[in-house]
Amino acid sequence: MNHSPILASARTLLFVPGNRPERFEKAMGSGADAVVLDLEDSVPLAEKGAARQAIAQALGGLAKHDVPLVVRINSVGAGLAGEEDLYWLASLKLLAGVMVPKVESAEMLDTVGRQLPSVPLLPLIESGAGYLALRSISSQRQVLRLAVGHIDFMADTGIMCSAGESELDSLRFEVAMVSRASRLAPAIDGVTVDIHNAELLRDDVHRSLRFGFGGKLCIHPKQIEGIHSAFAPTATQLNWARRVVAADAESGGAAVQLDGRMVDAPVVLQAKSFLARANAGQHRETV
Predict the structure, then answer these.
(1) CB 244 within 8 A of CB 266
(2) Whole-number pLDDT of residue 254
(3) Number of neighbouring beta carbons within 10 Å of residue 128
(4) Coil, strand, or helix at residue 274?
(5) What is the rounded distance in angstroms from the CA atom of residue 168 to the CA atom of residue 210?
(6) Residue 222 has pLDDT above 70, yes or no
(7) What is the DSSP letter of 34?
(8) With pLDDT > 70 as the criterion, what percentage of the chain qualifies?
(9) Is 266 helix (H, G, I), strand (E, B) or coil?
(10) Residues 225-268: pLDDT tens digits?
(11) What is the pTM of this model?
(12) Containing H/E element for 44?
């Protein structure tokens, strides 16, 4: 099955360490829209070979869940691990995509693409250099969606965030605008590290929505339900959206008033985006 459309609209991408194969099945059954088998930060250097072997052995069995599988490789050009990942991945099937960390140029993605020419790529923007190269990165032909790695971004740039992370507004805005201008799928926001704070998680997702993001990385299965709930339009928004679409259809596409407000093409597009978000959630629940 071609999982690219599902990966393009995934609200949740759940990380699971590649050296913890006992967690793979739980991750696949967690309700996440996509699962990211990690070879990078969560796997110690000495265990990366074992992690590759564990993933390769598990892939066939995991495919039965019909959930898109992504592998986050190690950084390309920062040592041997990333290059070893690429040679190893070239022999594997069943992957929906590859997440590439610490991307700072389109050339880094070309290196990945030469080994994996038909695999969708999810570049992580995690540094000042990556931020400045966003336009060229987004134009690389295999890029499906951009993702923000804001924890690494803060470490690289020295930015220290207050509550709400307003210091990263320009990063999120730029990623969202470049995604739109390059006609990519909506961007993916970074993780919420406090897995026990449901209110913070909801606030983080609502911020992602305000910036036009369509998904979020997550690090624990307990975050998935909260993310999906926060991404879903409210009952009020859905009711409004249905009425707008109905009014537009009745008018034959001409501008019309609803509740004393003008309904024209941009308003209809917003209404349809609410309905699409609701339908995405229903689709994943029935797959």
Answers:
(1) no
(2) 82
(3) 15
(4) helix
(5) 13
(6) yes
(7) E
(8) 96
(9) helix
(10) 999 999 998 899 999 989 999 988 888 878 888 888 888 888 99
(11) 0.90
(12) none
Instruction: Give the tokens for residue 46.
Output: 């000495």
For residue 259, how many other CB atoms are within 10 A of its CB?
Answer: 9
Show the tokens assigned to 24: 């793979």
Q: Which two tokens stand for residue 127?
A: 């540094």
Yes or no: say if 145 and 179 are a contact pair by the CB < 8 Å rule.
yes
3-state secondary structure of 228: helix
> Which tokens hold the place of 195?
């897995």
> Hey, which residues does 99 pair with through a beta bridge?
72, 122
* 3-state SS, residue 147: strand
Residue 286 pLDDT: 45
pLDDT tens sequence across 75-134? 997 667 888 999 999 988 889 999 999 999 999 999 999 999 999 999 999 999 999 999
Say how many Å lie between the first and final Cα of the chain, rounded. 12
Other Cβ atoms within 10 Å of 277 Cβ, number = 19
Centre a 10 Å sphere on the Cβ of residue 134 and count the other Cβ atoms it contains.
Answer: 21
Q: Phi/psi zone of residue 202: left (φ > 0), alpha (ψ -120 to 50 degrees), beta? A: alpha
**CA–CA separation, 223 and 215 (whole Å):** 13
Of 75, 166, 81, 164, nearest in space to 124 by CA: 75
Question: Is 237 strand, coil or helix?
Answer: helix
H or E segment and range at residue 69: strand 69-72
Question: DSSP H helical segments within the chain, as ranges?
Answer: 4-8, 24-28, 48-62, 80-89, 106-115, 128-132, 134-139, 150-157, 169-181, 198-210, 224-231, 235-251, 265-286
Token pair listed for 204:
């983080």
- CA distance linking residue 22 with residue 28, whole number of Å: 11
